[in-house]
Specification:
Layout: H1 2-9, E1 19-23, H2 27-38, E2 43-47, E3 53-58, E4 61-66, E5 70-72, H3 78-93, H4 98-107, E6 117-118, E7 125-129, H5 134-145, E8 151-155, H6 164-176, E9 179-182, H7 192-203, E10 212-214, H8 218-227, E11 234-238, E12 245-248, E13 251-254, H9 257-264
Parallel strand pairs: 1-2, 7-11, 8-9, 8-11, 9-10
Antiparallel strand pairs: 3-4, 4-5, 6-7, 12-13
Length: 268
């Protein structure tokens, strides 16, 4: 995560930006804000408690307050609400009026493909998310665990990327899931079994072997997850998000997680 922070901090330099809007609600956000201020970014604003901007979710929508105030009339979960708030404040800082932003929010669709996307209204509910970092897995899992009594997570990780985050992704999933199905995502040039083993190692730090299933084929993995659930539960499929392919041994193979989930639910 330290390397990830350092890489992102490069965006907040004169080479790429003159102004910055940063969610400083956690330690990494605070570090990013400090780095941006030191790296000659002309102007930085922060989001969070006692910051330039704050926000709260109300029955009427999302209220943004601080330097400027506006109300976004929409009903979103906490994770996507933060993303919308960040986008709205970037527009405010770019000079758009609060009224124009409020009107735009009422006019657009609020579902971002592959970001906690509910792929079917029938139960059990299946959500797709692009989560491919420990924090993203944890935030998505936490939000759904507060809504559903039983949560099964389908989880894979990418090959030829930071291997250290795989065990952490397993730990994150174990915190909130009632069961985890570990599968393949983009193994690329790596052995997919080794990637799965690292994720499982993180899960087994706090959970028993009965808590996890290993199913390499993602099509079979989503079917296995559905078999584990009864009415009222949900499945969170972390990794594929909106992508329509999988990378395996130098090839991009057609793969649509949304379509496969609907097939498994006998909807397509």
């Amino acid at each position: 995560m330290e390397n990830y922070l350092a890489a992102k901090a490069l965006l907040f330099t004169d080479q790429f930006s003159k102004r910055a809007v940063i969610n400083a609600e956690d330690n990494f956000g605070e570090q990013m804000l400090e780095l941006a201020s030191k790296q000659s970014t002309e102007h930085s604003v922060s989001i969070g408690k006692n910051r330039d901007y704050g926000f709260e979710q109300t029955d009427a929508g999302i209220r943004i307050f601080g330097k400027q105030e506006l109300l976004l009339a929409c009903d979103l979960g906490p994770l996507m609400a933060k993303n919308l708030v960040l986008a709205a404040i970037m527009l405010l800082e770019a000079g758009y009026s609060a009224r124009a932003i409020e009107s735009a929010v009422t006019a657009i669709g609020k579902v971002v493909p592959g970001r906690l996307e509910l792929v079917s209204e029938v139960e059990p509910h299946v959500y797709l998310d692009y989560a491919h970092t420990p924090q993203a897995v944890e935030l998505a899992a936490r939000e759904l665990s507060e809504k559903y009594s039983k949560l099964v997570i389908v989880l894979g990780a990418s090959g030829d990327r930071d291997p250290g985050k795989r065990i952490e992704m397993g730990r994150a999933a174990a915190k909130y899931a009632s069961h985890v199905v570990v599968t393949d995502q983009h193994p690329r040039s790596e052995d997919p079994a080794a990637i799965r083993a690292a994720i499982i190692a993180g899960i087994l730090e706090t959970k028993s072997a009965e808590f996890v299933s290993e199913v390499g084929d993602p099509v079979l993995a989503i079917s296995q997850a559905l078999n584990l659930l009864s009415v009222g539960g949900a499945i969170l499929w972390c990794g594929p998000g909106h992508l329509k392919y999988r990378e395996v041994k130098g090839k991009k193979l057609p793969f649509d997680a949304s379509l496969e989930a609907r097939k498994a639910l006998n909807l397509d």
